Structures
1.
Amino acid sequence: MRIIERAAELSAHLGARRAAGDAVGLVPTMGALHDGHASLVERAATECDTVALSIFVNPRQFVPGEDLDTYPSDLDADLVVAEKAGASVVFAPTVPEMFPDASRTTVHVAGLGDVLEGASRPGHFDGVATVVTKLLVLARPSRAYFGEKDFQQLVVVCRLVADLCLPVEVVACPTVRGFDGVALSSRNRYLSVAEREAAAVLYRALRAGAASVVAGERDPGEVVALVAAVAEAEPLVTLDYATVVHPETLAPPEVLAGELRLLVAARVGTTRLIDNVAIEVPE
Ligand code: PAF
């Protein structure tokens, strides 16, 4: 497995792989790799000849007061996970390498990046969209892999890829969960034992909401109220939002019909967690 720190070297190396006929897959991450990241790399390795995993704690997607300075980082452990999962290249640039002082350009995905997580974390998705665009331009992969756990991020990335005509297929990969149903996230390591137990309520709440739709509920307000009630019954959880949205526009539907996404965000102790499930309403 080759470890690359310079952007120009990444482009040159992957350019040579493409010229040799390889399909290149890209898995963008911020490190602190867990089984969810490993599942993205494993999927990429079944579909691509060369799999590049990027590890970059992107300062531009942290809003003031967030955990930029304490974000978990362990490159040696990450390299072991990456290699075992099938990565052939790890790109681990420094901040000045990705964002030289002279850089002035931001990618802003209007509307999609300002709601939900974007409302609680203003500027977060500008940071995500900008770094993902740069990584796609540097690596020029045929496919890029993102987890459905960060559903809004996936929607933002799909939109920017379409809007900027980037020649890449965005592959959405299912959320990986722990034994207790908690969606894997690098930030789960901030949770105490009691908080981890409490965090399991989020997936239970989403499942309860989805089950009510299966049982015939068609009023989005009722589904959201049920999700909120289940989540808020857990004293360690402070709900930020529960909502049902259209999976491409993130707009709330008036009635439940077709494919939709049920999302929650909550603080468990001081840790902010998000989760979501698909719901499909028969027409
Ligand atoms: O999902 C993440 O880890 C990050 O938001 C990403 C996509 C690597 C961009 O920094």
2.
Amino acid sequence: MNGKTPFNVRRALATTAMALALSATAGFAQDAAPPDPSETSLQDHQSALDNRYEPSLDNLAREDVTAPGAPEGIPALTDAQYNEANKIYFERCAGCHGVLRNGATGKALTPDLTREVGFEYLQMFINYGSPAGMPNWGTSGDLTEEQVDLMANYLLLDPAPPPEFGMNEMMETWVVHVEPEDRPTEQLNDWDLDNIFSVTLRDAGQIALIDGATYEIKSILDTGYAVHISRISASGRYLFVIGRDGKVNMIDMWMENPDTVAEIKIGSEARSIETSKMEGWEDRYAIAGAYWPPQYVIMDGQTLEPLKIQSTRGMTYDEQQYHPEPRVAAILSSHYRPEFIVNVKETGKILLVDYTDLDNLKTTEISAERFLHDGGLDSTHRYFITAANARNKLVVIDTQEGRLEAIEDTGGQTPHPGRGANFVHPTFGPVWATSHMGDDSVALIGTDPEGHPDNAWKILDSFPALGGGSLFIKTHPESKYLYVDATLNPEIEISGSVAVFDTSTMDGETTPEFVTLPLAEWAGISEGQPRVVQGEFNKEGTEVWFSIWNGLDQESAIVVVDDKTLELKHVIKDERLITPTGKFNVYNTKGDIY
Ligand code: DHE
């Protein structure tokens, strides 16, 4: 602590009422059976921000299934009723309770358990929620009375497991539109490829390729549904995007009109994609991770041919109990070894997958912490820092040595860093920052074991930003500012703004002040609840772009902020910019600069 005021004391003073309210719902429903809802006050059953952010498995929700039979004493559902309930379950419940209802952050809901508590108990829980984290689906108005009853009945019946997705299914979806030998041998367009932004147009099932200097939308390409992230091959030539529906598009940026040259579907629900970045292995492989089925696949980096599919089903790292559906969350590429870094969420394991010999696959399995989600590299690229978000922890991996370095409590509620933000703190030296979904705090962890050994892998400071509901934090080596969004905050002024901290004035003692940039207002968007999400710098690190993410039928925009003056530089508006979310600058993404 360097003799400074302990950050947690300052935080306790500065923390918002929301954080206090949230602490009542912390911990999720892992442990004891939740109390009877009628015994706690309605106040306790309001949904917390972080509970609302659990995965919505909307693609599984679309699949039609046959209703299972009902044992004696339990009303049977027709196929139509069962499918309606199944849809609600996958959109709203499966993120916490699991596809097979075996439990994840929420409790297991298998029929052996639900039949024991019975219809009325389930009905009450769905209606009121629980202080342990279950949203109040009925009293909030999200589900009608009939839907609550339907769901209580559905939970008494057997689950319908969705289909697996192995090599046969992948091969059926794999298409090479342009063979590698038929592709350009040099860049055929005059685009400044390094400064192109790949922008997710979430609900349109598209991405936009936008020039970072002129703000011109160069192209809009069809992709899978709701592209989650974009990653760029180490050479900067191939852009890979993955939809929530597991569809991967590989786009050749050298074509006269950059377009998809190969595509494949790797599962029914997916969130992550990456490419091999180790020297000597550039552009050789791609890897994608799925939520369902729980698996990852290594593909040829030129054609997307699926080469090796690995299931992640297995034992939890701590209790060593079998988990049937551990989702693959963030995947990054090591710069130090020919390995992919794969976060396996529910079992709490980080896999270092060596891609040098796929027939004799070597994997280092690191026991980390459960509910691993997103994360990024430190400024030297040697260390991977990732959030075990439902456990309020950061896990640090040394990618050079291939081992666990540290696990630290952030002091906040549900860390959500994206890839995080690296900067040199005036007092603490190099640090990496995360914001939180469940409260307003920003936490800094020391990342320099050589130069600042006393600070390394310790949470050195924590201070409040705009409010709870933050998803992403961003800076750049050329910038002295740290930008923190509050995307999920219920207050329209807060979700429509970004907090900016001057890192050069931080002293580790006084609470850093921030300025608020009202970006939705700057964009002139007054309808809906425009949400500012995910800052991304241009190549030079002089401008930072934010999506103003609005409803499907409402106006959205991208706002460009001048990083020197913190003034509005430009607003990109276009009727084709439907629900923009993630933005990935080619240069920064391929070089892991953040
Ligand atoms: Fe994301 C990153 C999962 C909701 C926009 N999101 C990630 C990663 C994971 C993930 C595992 C890390 C990928 C990697 O690095 O390989 N996201 C999930 C969910 O499970 C969750 C909570 C719920 C869901 O149903 O998907 C979820 N995410 C969202 C959103 O609602 C966002 C705001 C809009 C959207 O498209 O759905 C969203 N997620 C993003 C973005 C990134 C991301 C923009 C990449 C940030 C970065 O800078 O790297």
